[in-house]
Design a protein that fits this description.
By secondary structure, the chain is of the alpha+beta class. 22% of the residues lie in helices and 32% in strands. The chain has helices at 4-12, 17-20, 128-137, 141-151, and strands at residues 21-26, 29-34, 40-44, 52-54, 81-90, 93-104, 114-118, 125-126, 154-155.
Length: 158
């Protein structure tokens, strides 16, 4: 059984998230399960209004992410910066709900990307724990790092 400090340490030291956590779809939820201890999980339900933090996220760095073009701007209700609560749990206990901002669009080598961006806890510095959590839930470390750089965020050294 892990305590809260061990959970924070494990998540903050994630290096190969796709080897350490496996993504599963459970009903309408996405859940990432720790392989070393299957009681530890991170989950989000994008279709549950209770997990929506802000539909149109605002912050001083938001202007760094231009909105991608919509196929039909008059009928397409869509945002490129929304935020959701991601639940970190151990067994049936909720450890923490962490806000991550979903960023859609923006130019990169493939023409567009999606990233779940962690929010900084002080200034423009993101904790190792929140960065590790974002590594777990992002499909691409490159997209996460691109979004972090675009936002002007750095990761704490310890």
């Amino acid at each position: 059984m892990m305590n809260q400090n061990e959970i924070v340490s494990l998540i903050g030291n994630v290096t190969f998230p796709k080897d350490e956590f496996v993504k599963r779809a459970v009903l309408s939820r996405d859940v990432w399960i720790c392989q070393a201890d299957t009681s530890l999980a991170v989950g989000v339900d994008y279709h549950d209004a209770a997990t929506l933090h802000l539909r149109e996220f605002q912050g001083p760095w938001v202007g760094n992410f231009p909105a991608p073009p919509r196929s039909n701007p008059t009928t397409e209700a869509w945002t490129h910066l929304s935020s959701h609560y991601f639940r970190v749990s151990y067994g049936s206990s909720v450890i923490e709900n962490v806000v991550l901002v979903t960023i859609d669009g923006g130019p990169d080598a493939t023409g567009g990307y999606r990233a779940q961006l962690p929010l900084p806890e002080s200034g423009a510095t993101v904790s190792r724990y929140r960065y590790g959590l974002a590594l777990i839930v992002n499909d691409s470390k490159a997209n996460l790092d691109f979004a972090m750089t675009t936002a002007g965020f750095g990761v704490a050294s310890a």
